UniProtKB/TrEMBL annotation:
This is GOLD domain-containing protein. Its main location: membrane. It comes from the Eukaryota. Residues 56-143 form the GOLD domain. One of its GO terms (cellular component) is endomembrane system. The keyword Transmembrane applies. The chain crosses the membrane at residues 198-218. Pfam families: EMP24_GP25L. Keywords: Membrane, Signal, Transmembrane, Transmembrane helix. PROSITE patterns: GOLD. It is found in: Endomembrane system; Membrane. It comes from Drechslerella dactyloides (Nematode-trapping fungus).
Length: 228
């Protein structure tokens, strides 16, 4: 998977002076705003994967030193009646293979870290501990490219658009979380309703059987036996 933050940084730093048709400052502002909106479009892209029993899925992002990356995820189940244990294992490894984040048996997560070296950072979702159920994972990955103090954009419009992009990413993450939670709760409620329905039907059969037994038993009890 391509790194979103790297893609955004390349766009943001590709501004060039105007060609004479428009003032250079105007051209730079337009390019900065366009780049910022493109980065917003990449930030809000959500991903969904299906984890079968005894399986794992791993992805990676190429980061530079001091870049920040955030991974948010929520485990759910699209299948009706499949609500149950939705725990998975999640971890992030740095380029040297060391664990930066390790969270076993979790169903929701929001993890951020700062890259301490250049290279490929790998994050994995594992359902290897489950022997039966498959689980759906919805996750978002977004990051902030490190920019030295002297390289920060001076255009206030660009700053505002970047801030708007970060807020939009947070709203999108929260929306994905709400959708998954609603699905989990709906599946749980429907599964509970089914159990209640089947239990009620079972009780009805038991009640009818009990009534039939009592009628025959009482009838037999009051029968008069005659000896011929």
């Amino acid at each position: 998977m391509a790194a979103f933050c790297t893609f955004s940084s390349k766009l943001a730093t590709s501004a060039s002076p105007g060609d004479g048709t428009y003032p250079a400052n105007t051209m730079r502002s337009l390019q900065a705003v366009t780049a910022a909106f493109l980065s917003v479009a990449s930030l809000v892209a959500a991903h969904n994967i299906q984890l079968n029993a005894h399986s794992r899925e791993c992805f990676h992002e190429n980061l530079h030193k001091d870049d920040k990356m955030t991974v948010t995820f929520q485990v759910g189940d699209r299948e009706f009646g499949g609500a149950g244990n939705l725990d998975i294992d999640f971890w992030i490894q740095d380029p040297s293979g060391a664990l930066r984040i390790n969270e076993p048996h979790t169903s929701v997560g929001d993890h951020s870290f700062t890259a301490h070296e250049d290279g490929k950072y790998t994050y994995c979702f594992s359902n290897e501990g489950s022997s039966v159920s498959s689980k759906e994972v919805s996750f978002n990955v977004h990051g902030i490219v490190y920019v030295a103090e002297e390289e920060h954009p001076s255009d206030p419009l660009e700053k505002e658009v970047r801030t708007l992009g970060e807020l939009l990413a947070q709203v999108k993450d929260e929306q994905e979380y709400i959708v998954i939670r609603e699905r989990v709760h709906r599946n749980t409620a429907e599964s509970t309703n089914d159990r209640i329905k089947y239990w009620s039907v079972f009780q009805l059969f038991v009640l009818v059987g009990n009534c039939v037994f009592q009628v025959f038993y009482l009838k037999r009890f009051f029968e008069i036996k005659r000896v011929v």
